[in-house]
Design a protein that fits this description.
- Strand 8 (247-255) and strand 9 (258-267) form a beta hairpin.
- The protein is globular and about 55 Å long.
- The chain has helices at 16-33, 35-52, 54-71, 80-101, 118-123, 142-149, 165-175, 190-201, 235-243, 277-296, and strands spanning 110-113, 133-136, 156-160, 181-184, 205-209, 220-225, 228-233, 247-255, 258-267.
- It contains ten helices and nine strands.
- By secondary structure, it is of the alpha/beta class.
- Strands 1-9-8-2-5-3-4 form a seven-stranded mixed β-sheet, with helices on both faces.
- It has one domain.
Length: 321
């Protein structure tokens, strides 16, 4: 389906192309002049995207307003400076993402917060052990989680609802990262479910974002997020229930120049009673949205969904990252 057939208000028609362009410019700059000299250049690039992206600015301002009201923290209220700082935080995350792909991130730059031992299970994954699901969000830098979590013989399949998967694959290959398997997902049909089930049985893990709905308007559920109804995807929770697969949350936030990877259990034995599937998915999505709001407070400017988040998507279409 061509881009012209997509609902213009859906996130996939918004900043995805801009995000890729920014990543490409950043990658070229890093390759030719290095990270430190790239800083002022990156500032100018971000300033351009900030000045020209009215819709993205409005979306960031709306997020900051709702986070401040929901938390009761007046210091989080949006100003032009704070909105620009959110754009700059995104640009910095792109630099770090490229460092991860190039193998430049050092272990001492990362702190792991994992009281339940999820990373140890991942390191021991493989034949004879069922895989699990990791649900992340566009909060902080998921690439840091992916690079450090892939230990030993473990395999992570990153499910992306995006027609730009091959572009990101290309950028990763150019940067030297060939460790992750990116899978484009347009719909959880029978063939895909069989493939994912086989991967789980082989001990492979699945990683999927829990904060962006696919273009199918009927593939989301409306839950409370930061005090207002927002559409959240059913996909992660549908997968968990159908595969009967242990599911955990992952989030990587940059605090005081150092990344903190948060890994925490979410669903131990996901299942639903007959006729209760929709209710179970809605309950899990609601719990996830509540936890996501709490995580946003740990790094308020590292929310990287630059589109009208609380606006329901139009029905029709077919994909998301």
């Amino acid at each position: 389906m061509s881009d012209t057939s997509l609902p213009s208000r859906h996130w996939a028609t918004q900043k995805e192309r801009g995000s890729f362009a920014l990543m490409k410019l950043t990658a070229l700059g890093l390759r030719h002049i290095g990270r430190k000299p790239m800083a002022p250049v990156l500032y100018l690039i971000v300033l351009y995207f900030f000045a020209s992206g009215r819709r993205a600015r409005q979306a960031a301002r709306e997020y900051q307003q709702r986070l401040a009201a929901w938390s009761g923290r007046a210091e989080l209220r949006p100003t032009t400076r704070r909105v620009f700082r959110q754009f700059m935080a995104f640009a910095e995350s792109l630099l770090d993402r490229l460092d991860v792909w190039r193998g430049k991130l050092r272990p001492e730059q990362v702190q792991l917060i994992d009281p339940s031992g999820i990373r140890e299970r991942l390191a021991q994954s493989g034949p004879g052990r069922r895989g699990e699901i990791l649900v992340g969000a566009h909060l902080g830098n998921l690439d840091v989680c992916r690079a450090l979590a892939e230990l030993g013989g473990s395999s992570i399949n990153v499910l992306l609802h995006s027609r730009h998967v091959e572009r990101f694959n290309q950028l990763q290959r150019e940067a030297g990262d060939r460790r992750l398997r990116l899978i484009q997902v347009s719909e959880l049909d029978a063939a895909l479910m069989l493939d994912l089930s086989q991967r789980i049985e082989r001990g492979e893990w699945l990683a999927i974002a829990g904060d962006r709905v696919p273009l199918h308007g009927d593939r989301c559920v409306s839950v409370d997020f930061l005090g207002h109804a927002a559409p959240f995807p059913q996909g992660p929770w549908l997968l968990a229930g159908l595969l009967r697969c242990r599911t955990s949350l992952m989030c990587c936030l940059k605090v005081d120049g150092r990344y903190r990877i948060h890994l925490e259990p979410f669903l131990d034995e996901p299942a639903w009673e007959r006729g209760r599937r929709e209710a179970a998915i809605a309950q899990w999505a609601s719990r996830y949205a509540e936890r996501l709001g709490q995580l946003c407070l740990l790094a308020p400017l590292q929310w990287f969904n630059f589109y009208p988040y609380w606006q329901a998507p139009a029905a029709g279409g077919d994909d998301a990252r």
